[in-house]
């Protein structure tokens, strides 16, 4: 993540770690398209993300980020979430987010390094009103039942159920996301990260996409060698073969 020192458990350190994670550890679903089973034990996540310099999706990224924060002295609670889509609010456990408390400080922070494009910094839980962030204007609206709606520019992104969970609780849905025909994670390989300028760099199948200042540029990677080289250059990731969309394969 490029943090040379061991951070103390402070609000400033949490903000630094959150941003650096988004800049250096990609959101990706490549193992699904490489026919590799994703497992949610901390040793497996560490081996994949740290040792092999890979990324992952929400259960992996926020799962290992929680382990890091706890090691540094933060108090971390895992929450199950329902993701908003064009079809409405999704099922519980569709997403994993974190509530982080700083020793000696009041309140909690919503930390989420596993939702693709989201806030660059943690959001203050219990704060009424808009929270400005480099990635947009966020708001956390508490519902009567105690759930929290996370909104970006007045559009709901997901709903948080504020009941403490463990990483094991997400195992069934992690399996389901990988295995269910029609799951959006099975539609095609994607890998993305935040850039220093606040844009995004993405590889989606054979397309290299750069978004900076609202401008989108797309380049077609003509060969498998070009794809593998782009993963190495843009993400520091060494793959043995190109991920092939699992739902588009011929039987």
Give a description of the structure.
There is one protein chain. This protein is an alpha+beta fold and 251 residues long. It has two domains: 11-170, Arylamine N-acetyltransferase fold (2-Layer Sandwich), CATH 3.30.2140; 183-248, no CATH class. The chain has six helices and 14 strands. It has helices at residues 11-24, 30-33, 42-51, 58-72, 171-179, 224-235; strands at 27-28, 75-85, 88-89, 95-101, 109-111, 123-124, 130-133, 136-142, 148-152, 155-165, 190-194, 200-204, 207-212, 215-220. Strands 2, 3, 4, 5, 6, 7, 8, 9 and 10 form a nine-stranded antiparallel sheet that branches. It has a five-stranded antiparallel sheet with strand order 1-11-12-13-14. Helix 3 (42-51) packs across helix 4.
Secondary-structure map:
Blueprint: H1 11-24, E1 27-28, H2 30-33, H3 42-51, H4 58-72, E2 75-85, E3 88-89, E4 95-101, E5 109-111, E6 123-124, E7 130-133, E8 136-142, E9 148-152, E10 155-165, H5 171-179, E11 190-194, E12 200-204, E13 207-212, E14 215-220, H6 224-235
Antiparallel strand pairs: 1-11, 2-3, 2-4, 2-10, 4-5, 5-6, 7-8, 8-9, 9-10, 11-12, 12-13, 13-14
Helix pairs in contact: 3-4
């Amino acid at each position: 993540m490029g943090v040379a020192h061991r951070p103390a458990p402070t609000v400033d350190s949490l903000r630094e770690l959150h941003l650096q994670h988004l800049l250096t550890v990609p959101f990706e679903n490549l193992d699904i398209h490489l026919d590799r089973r994703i497992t949610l034990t901390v040793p497996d996540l560490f081996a994949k993300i740290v040792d092999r310099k890979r990324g992952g999706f929400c259960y992996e990224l926020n799962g290992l980020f929680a382990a890091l924060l706890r090691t540094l002295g933060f108090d971390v609670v895992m929450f199950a979430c329902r993701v908003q889509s064009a079809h409405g609010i999704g099922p519980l456990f569709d997403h994993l987010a974190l509530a982080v408390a700083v020793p000696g400080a009041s309140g909690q922070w919503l930390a989420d390094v596993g939702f693709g494009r989201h806030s660059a910094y943690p959001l203050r839980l219990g704060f009424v009103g808009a929270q400005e962030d480099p990635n947009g204007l966020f708001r956390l609206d508490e519902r009567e039942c105690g759930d929290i709606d996370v909104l970006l520019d007045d559009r709901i992104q997901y709903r948080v159920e504020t009941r403490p969970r463990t990483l094991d609780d997400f195992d069934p849905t992690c399996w389901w996301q990988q295995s269910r025909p029609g799951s959006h994670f099975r539609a095609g390989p994607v890998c993305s990260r935040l850039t220093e300028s606040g844009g995004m760099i993405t590889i989606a199948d054979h397309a290299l996409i750069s978004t900076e200042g609202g401008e989108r540029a797309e380049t077609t990677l003509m060969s498998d060698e070009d794809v593998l080289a782009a993963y190495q250059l843009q993400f520091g990731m060494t793959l043995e073969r190109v991920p092939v969309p699992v739902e588009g394969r011929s039987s």
